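Example record

The entry below shows one chain as it appears in the dataset: sequence first, then structure tokens.
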Amino acid sequence: MVKSIRRSFIVFWLIISILGALNHTIYRGILPWKKVLVELLPHLRYGWVMFNRSPDIIHTFWYIPKGGTKEIHLSDLEKTPSFLYKEARVGLSAYYSEDYVEYLCQTNQKADRSIFIKKTYNIKMPDIPPEVQRQKCFFGKLINE
């Protein structure tokens, strides 16, 4: 009984996903069940994307190890395992939590005497070089350069 309910749910979920994709591509506006699809998949009412606003400013986070010259993504310092999405998770954590970079500096032996770099890009003005902020990790504390 439970298996048949689970299978029915998966089949139903696949069908409405495919119909939603077709609604945005081949059959855009032609399908008679568009209102039903919007009720089942509310993100369809916003158009092509699930979010109705895109960011104008993007931050990327890097570090240069002690004695090195190559910039390495900050996710290399994160000890928590995460399969295939570590860079995104660390980037979002650093963006939304001001203390996250300092936390990485304090908890990771590899980070000591490294230089942390935050690059800020303005998407609307791609010709302008990014704004760069540099901080040095010195015995678990971040010091501005």
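Notes for this example: The chain is about 35% helix and 20% strand. Strands lie at 57-64, 72-73, 115-122, 131-138, 141-144.
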